[in-house]
Amino acid sequence: MKKNGYLWLCLILVLFSSTFILSADGAKNISVMPLPLKTETGNGQFRLDEKFVVSVSNNASDRLCSAASRALRRISGKTGLFFQQDYVRTGEASENASLKIIVERTGKIKLHEDESYTLTIEPGGISLKAVTDLGALHGLETLVQLVDKDKDGYLLPALKIEDAPRFAWRGLMIDACRHFMPVEMIKRNIDAMAAVKLNVFHWHLSEDQGFRVESKTFPKLTGLGSDGLFYTQSEIKDIIKYAEDRGISVVPEFDIPGHSTAWFAGYPELASAPGPYKVERKWGVFDPVFDPTNEETYKFFDAFFKEMSELFPNEYMHIGGDENNGKDWKKNEKIQEYMKAHNIPDAHALQAYFNKRILEILTKYNKKMIGWDEILHPDMPKNIIIQSWRGVKSLKESAQKGYQALLSNGYYIDLCYSTATHYLNDPLPENLNLSDDEKKFILGGEATMWAELVSPENVDSRIWPRTAAIAERFWSAQNVKDVRDMYRRLPAISRELEDVGALHLKNRGSMIRRLIGYDDNSALLTLLGVIEPVKEYSRHSQGKSYNSYSPLTRVVDIAVPDADDARNFGFAVDDFLAGKVELEKEITTWLQCWKDNKAKLLLLIDKNPVLKEIEPLSNSLSDIAELGMDAMKQIKAHNKASQDRISIALQKIKKAQEPAGQAELANLSAIEKLIKKSGE
Ligand code: ACM
After folding, report:
1. pTM above 0.90, yes or no
2. pLDDT tens per residue across span 108-137
3. In 3D, which of 505, 508, 463, 465 has the Cα closest to residue 487?
4. I want to staple 410 with a disulfide (CB 3.0 to 4.6 A). Which of 229, 396, 399, 425 is the partner?
């Protein structure tokens, strides 16, 4: 080639390759969650119209065709466009397709399967390429989230995304025992998991308060241990298929040897104390525990896990193992003698003996054992997985000793912490100082939805949208941790989750109507915008004695763990104090609204006795809003408030921290900042 020709070729290559511009900020303009690994922005956009057609490669699985069809319907639903295509099938001509999906093979529902994908959107068409159909499923979720609009219609921005997960295990655990969670609840949450690229549904199926799986071998497990609330085997198969169709594996948990009262309602002879036993109604840690020195226990588990291994195809079986207090072992002379005779020094070692016997059974049925971090013990072989929940110490120790591990500590969504708290909790914390080889033992993490204080009606509002941010932590690069940007994208994903069936937003309306009928709910909504349920497990120690049939319908059950108005007000205050003086009006409007809300809400409280308990919060909100307004006036006038005035105001803030109805105000720290500023 002549020199000139070569230069021309280079120029043409540069022109073509610059359709996409790699920019670190590429992802900043889009509202996708989790954020992709690599986003290159392009020029222009693909305009959506009724001619939009999707094609899949001929080797596409039924799973991919169904997922593509669902995506088509979701885009149609968002845009109101009457697409001509009814369903996405293999073998249909692809030349004119607007979206071409090409996969190399069908993926296995298995840890470490390839989940990567490349999505290219150009004005002339879209391509989604993946090694497996599982990667393509993720790409479809990204695509649906990217649908945007302008005055001329609906569009997808030109871009190129190359994406793959950071961690192989990205889970959500749902406790279906403390409160039974019906099949529809499980399915809609599986859809929501798929929307944010989670891939492991950990199903907590046995507890003191209920045994939730039909066993044909041991029918008394549900016959006497479930109050009739359990999943039949055909429902379980249906749910597993539903999950696998969405790229999600199902890991069942049968919690042993503790947390096991419900098992003993039907089979008391396997317990360490004589019983009799009834399904537990209260919450807490209880004494009933399997007798690990009784050979009948292992015969029972052999038959039980044989049946469950056939029912649950996944390679993992979770055996729980948490919070065995060992009291019934201590009280049982036969068990104490056994321990002496076999040189078993303590309850932890006895539990390790039990776990080893269970591991033999699971191995026989081709299952790998996973358990909460209590199963970590020097006697245990290295082929078990440790789920760290009590702290990161066990995570570090597991990785250093050569056990695979995942992190749940910091992802306890039942504790009602903010989205940001969970978001900044990394499965591989920097300060663990693990070597690169040790890091390889960390498989990922799991959010845990324990169900003492949730019902099928409000559980979605505890899981979503916070778990979308946790999903981003598990999927996206470690340095994706801009909290403001996460919160910028959270409302969009929250609405998307609603589209796939999550009820976190919808059920709020009906829960409010239950309390106040058709009365004007605006004053209650104003309060709900700034209150949160109390954190951790302090609801149990605040005057109410909760059990499995307590109402979960009160204001605290409608309040969400990350109150939007309180958080947005906090951001506005931070920005204002950092120099964005134009936010003064917004802040003052908020404060005025809260100040005036007391009288409006009182009208509702007087009519609806169930609201009486939150009156102190409403009063405090009004009082502290007034303090905030005073502070704003001082700041605006450049007056320095006296130290006396400041300290009286701060005392009032302290008083306003007192919960009422097991809820608390979430906007206090922002108002405190204003008060402090007014004294500078
Ligand atoms: C647990 O939270 N007891 C695992």
Report:
1. yes
2. 999 999 999 999 999 999 999 999 999 999
3. 465
4. 425
